[in-house]
Amino acid sequence: MKLISDVLIVGTGIAGLFTALNLSENLNITIVTKSTLTDSNSYLAQGGISTAYDVNDIEDFVKDTLHAGNFKNNPSIVYMVAKESRDVIDTLINFEVKFDSLNGQLLYTKEGGHSKNRILHHKDYTGKHVIDTLITKLKSRKNIKILKNSTLVDLIVKENKCLGGTFIKNNKLIDIYSKYTVLATGGIGGLFKNSTNARILTGDALSISLRYGIKLKDIEYIQFHPTALYNKTSERMFLISESLRGEGAILKNIYGQRFVNELLPRDKVANKIWNELKEKNCKFVYLDISHLDKNYIRNRFPLIYNTCLEYGIDITKDPIPVRPAQHYYMGGIEVDEFSRTSMDNLFAVGEVSCTGLHGNNRLASNSLLEGLVFGKRCSDYINKNISSQKIEVLKVDKNIDEIILENKNLFRNTLRKHRSDINDELI
Ligand SMILES: Cc1cc2nc3c(=O)[nH]c(=O)nc-3n(C[C@H](O)[C@H](O)[C@H](O)COP(=O)(O)OP(=O)(O)OC[C@H]3O[C@@H](n4cnc5c(N)ncnc54)[C@H](O)[C@@H]3O)c2cc1C
């Protein structure tokens, strides 16, 4: 089957949705997802979205992001994102996203690595609320066609120019031709045994990029979240958000001793936990918030409270067994400040991209923000430049079975080469 669209967006997480909603309503857009509209990491996000509190906070926000990223970040990108953070939050509020507030004033929380309260949230299920709101908006747009349960398996390419993408839906191939193509396919947690990510996220676009020589960057930068709920049976590990530590939860070893400053950046806290697990020869440590007011805990963290209850843990009374798990990919497809990749007419937005914002360790709640800022920049660029572009249809014979097999292994094997230390964590 052949379809034609001005803009093709692959992925319905925050990056794909926000890009689509900021594109001109005169454009004909197709947005595709591998699974359902909500099977994404964005939907799972708990803690919130960081933003410069006000213009005076931009400098501190930049410092915190650079510090967490161990100064491997691109400082001009960090500054740009901090400066534009307020605008994208305002757009979300215009789209009817409701951040928690009191008497009309937005409530900001704090998480590890932030020197002040600058994270907006919707209880402890910010992602679900934001994505549900954006999907409602998306469905109201007549110019946007949604294609579900369709997996991108290949790009359509002519001389380093992207002409669209090839998808598989119900064992049938669909070629979608477009003037511009945006990859918003998210992270790589599906390649790991222990991960907080949606299991469908297997780095498909990264394998495809490797096949075409599209530049990747910082391949070795993988983030492990310090506190995933320890459980022997669950497939995806349930995240215990950083915001618990931001609001006073304490990490203790199996002997009940505190062993780390809970508000250090993620990599430092995760390393301390790995050491503790090795030294004490145990499988988990404890995160304890039971000293806070019970009603406050239940109201502020309803998702975590109820999910832990399902595992027999009452977090208002009991400490939570936790361990680190793969959580986020800082590396990805190298992009510039408009999310342009090294292939013409191809963009990458959100976790699949490497913008230079995070360095080698993402600061908490900076990922949703990155998807928003770069989604907006990418759509602005497309709105401005699309009139000079034409659809080109190309007949190519493909051995799809071979391509699918290659997609499955190419990026995983590349990761193995770059990170032999995490071989045991990969599936
Ligand atoms: C449990 C959890 C909690 C988090 N909490 C926070 C938080 O509080 N704040 C924060 O800033 N960040 C948080 N993060 C990180 C953040 O949620 C993600 O980095 C961010 O949502 C990524 O957005 P995205 O749009 O790039 O990708 P995603 O939201 O993961 O969306 C990826 C999309 O790509 C589609 N896709 C993938 N491959 C293909 C393919 N081959 N063909 C077609 N479609 C494809 C998927 O179907 C999906 O629609 C959290 C992550 C997790 C896992």
Calculate the mean pLDDT score and round it: 96
How much of the sequence lies in strands comes to 15-25%
Please summarize the sheet with the most strands: 7 strands, mixed
Tally of separate helices: 12
Structural class call reads: alpha/beta
The quaternary structure here is single chain
Q: What is the tally of beta strands?
A: 19
Task: State the end-to-end CA separation.
Answer: 34 Å
CATH class of the largest domain: Alpha Beta
Count of individual domains: 2
The second-level CATH architecture of the largest domain is 3-Layer(bba) Sandwich
Unique ligands: flavin-adenine dinucleotide
CATH superfamily of the largest domain: FAD/NAD(P)-binding domain
Any low-confidence stretches, pLDDT <50, length ≥5? none
By CATH, the topology of the largest domain is FAD/NAD(P)-binding domain
Radius of gyration over all CA atoms, rounded: 21 Å
- Overall shape: globular
Percent helix among the residues?
Answer: 25-40%
Pfam families: FAD_binding_2
Cofactor: FAD
Pathway: Cofactor biosynthesis; NAD(+) biosynthesis; iminoaspartate from L-aspartate (oxidase route): step 1/1
InterPro entries: FAD-dep_OxRdtase_2_FAD-bd (IPR003953), FAD/NAD-bd_sf (IPR036188), NadB (IPR005288), Succ_DH/fumarate_Rdtase_cat_sf (IPR027477)
